[in-house]
Write a structure and sequence with these properties.
This protein is of the alpha/beta class and about 170 residues long. The chain has one domain: Rossmann fold (3-Layer(aba) Sandwich), CATH 3.40.50.960. The chain has five helices and four strands. A four-stranded parallel sheet has the order 2-1-3-4, sandwiched between helices.
Length: about 170
């Protein structure tokens, strides 16, 4: 009986081109997300020359900038970082929902990982917790997801090539 084949991303050989697209709105929270993402990439062997930081006004503008990055072939993975904090109007739902939906669509359209590190929280305290205090750093988590997907897709591409050569 053959063992079940398993494929999963590793955190070795993850040096690739990463674009971190950053929404400046709520920068007091987002800056810490960026620090976490960059630190995580570098600690896992990504050359700083392979990291590009791209700043946009806020979460609403993230998808358009991400699309341009992908169209230009600038990155093997994108990390989208921002913070949308609920206010007293329905604006929150529109921004957060549209941003997340567009990022997912772009990931599939361009066949390139987009790690979503855009905080969508009810309060500033929740945002602070998720940017490096009690709840960890979601920028770090997004960078880890991006690296894991780069590794996984490389393995899958090698498997597809091996299957094609076997035919």
């Amino acid at each position: 009986m053959n063992p079940i084949a398993q494929v999963e991303g590793q955190f070795i050989d993850v040096d690739a081109r990463y674009a971190i697209v950053i929404g400046r709105f709520n920068h007091h929270v987002v800056d810490t997300l960026v620090e976490g993402a960059v630190d995580s990439l570098v600690r896992h062997g990504v050359d700083e020359a392979n990291i590009t930081l791209i700043h946009v006004p806020g979460a609403w503008e993230l998808p358009l900038a991400v699309k341009r990055v992908l169209k230009a072939g600038m990155a093997d993975a994108v990390i989208a970082l921002g913070a949308v904090i609920r206010g007293g109007t329905p604006h929150f739902e529109h921004i957060a929902g549209q941003c997340n939906s567009a990022l997912n669509t772009l990931q599939l359209e361009f066949d390139t990982p987009i790690a979503n590190g855009v905080l969508t929280v009810n309060t500033i305290d929740q945002a602070i917790e998720r940017s490096g205090t009690k709840a960890g750093n979601k920028g770090t988590e997004a960078a880890m997801a991006a690296m894991e997907m780069v590794s996984l897709l490389r393995q899958l591409d090698m498997g597809i090539e091996m299957m094609e050569h076997a035919e």
